[in-house]
């Protein structure tokens, strides 16, 4: 693609335009968009026009821009996230129906947890996770499971990049390395109040080749309900079902 | 963006590259991609490289290209589809739990039905709908509801574009215009076997301003179960709940 004087390609500018939108800014004026995407206003106008014509952007009632259905349809018609979601949904629905609390599916992406799917009942406890939202690795049970069952070089890179990663003192764990060993040894993560003080997250790995996690399956329940040991078998069987539905070898 | 000699912009070529992937072709070699996107092989290589670096594409184990998590995350972080889905999910989960069959949410897009969400039980009847998939308007209950509660100019454009739109003779309806009037009058659509002979689709509109449908909420059940009249109140109350959750005025 053509490069601008500043050396970045059209695609880079396009990605910055699209990435400017998010849960915190679902709609933007063209001026705000230019600022957030760090492109000249004239460029923002030109790219926005092209994106509008492909329905990658749309104008809302107030004339502000939002991400369009065209982009959503394209991304959701076929992707790694969809394959995973398709395999997991029947199991997640059953777990949600039985446990009655948030049931979620997540993968490791960059240095964060990317939420692929979340099912919630109307009475579920508070939960920070949103579909396509990010959560910190070392502050969530899903993240700890994904990291504990990641290849060693991924673990080491994460620990190097987050030297101050810590767990609440109440866990009684010295550091993240000890926490990862614990999670790997017991095959699940269950931590109280890492994100919300009032909740406990319980997560297990969906294991692929070489016992590397391809995803984490978890629930978030009210704290101190003593439910971990009744919920764990449900999650472990669900995770095996998902792995099998994805064509992974299950021990 | 820069235009090629053939006059189409980089964005057009980019959209064609991304649009080449679909449920029928989740993974493509670079050669197949160039053919489907109608771009020269060298262009396909160059654009694919850029898209790989942004995780809009990824390489699978065999070296073929697939849509990447980056695109999925971007599209799902914020969009009209997400707002609708977020509002609808608690109601859809309840309906799915009570009815035990496919529960789906769809919107009108171009001249087709775009499926935004589908919840299915493991024992649900056969169903052609896929998330982000398209269905024909005049062969689905959801499509008939969306068209019946669309602005008049949308209806007329559809009927002009589909002069041979027809319903199975067994419905006893003369033509699509009569079918739309029926659906609009009764406030729901329930047709046997339009897509699958063995199933009945039942759909109601989620109504926004001016009693225009912003979405269709429906279930697919086994045919001839005589369930329409027991399921209809569940769908109608669910649709009102979704409209209210979206901030629409509910009569």
UniProtKB/TrEMBL annotation, chains A, B:
GO molecular function term, any single one: DNA-binding transcription factor activity
Superkingdom to which the source organism belongs: Bacteria
A Gene Ontology BP annotation from the UniProt entry: negative regulation of DNA-templated transcription
Pfam families in the cross-refs: HTH_IclR, IclR_C
Domain HTH iclR-type, first and last residues per copy: 8-69
Gene3D superfamilies membership: 3.30.450.40, Winged helix-like DNA-binding domain superfamily/Winged helix DNA-binding domain (1.10.10.10)
Protein name as it appears in the record: IclR family transcriptional regulator
């Amino acid at each position: 693609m053509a490069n601008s004087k500043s050396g970045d390609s059209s695609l880079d500018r396009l990605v910055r335009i699209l990435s400017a939108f998010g849960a915190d800014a679902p709609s933007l004026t063209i001026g705000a968009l230019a600022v957030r995407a760090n492109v000249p206003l004239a460029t923002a106008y030109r790219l926005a026009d092209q994106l509008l014509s492909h329905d990658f952007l749309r104008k809302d009632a107030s004339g502000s821009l939002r991400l369009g259905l065209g982009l959503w349809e394209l991304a959701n018609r076929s992707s790694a996230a969809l394959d995973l979601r398709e395999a997991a949904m029947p199991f997640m629905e059953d777990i949600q129906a039985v446990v009655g609390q948030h049931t979620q599916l997540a993968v490791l992406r960059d240095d964060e947890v990317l939420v692929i799917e979340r099912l919630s009942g109307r009475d579920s406890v508070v939960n920070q996770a949103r579909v396509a939202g990010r959560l910190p690795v070392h502050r969530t049970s899903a993240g700890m499971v994904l990291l504990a069952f990641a290849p060693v070089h991924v673990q080491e890179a994460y620990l190097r990049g987050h030297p101050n990663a810590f767990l609440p003192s109440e866990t009684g764990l010295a550091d993240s390395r000890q926490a990862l060993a614990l999670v790997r040894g017991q095959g699940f993560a269950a931590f109280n109040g890492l994100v919300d003080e009032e909740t406990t997250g319980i997560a297990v790995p969906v294991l692929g080749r070489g016992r590397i996690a391809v995803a984490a399956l978890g629930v978030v329940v009210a704290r101190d309900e003593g439910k971990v040991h009744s919920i764990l078998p449900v999650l472990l069987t669900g995770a095996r079902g998902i792995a099998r539905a994805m064509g992974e070898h299950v021990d």
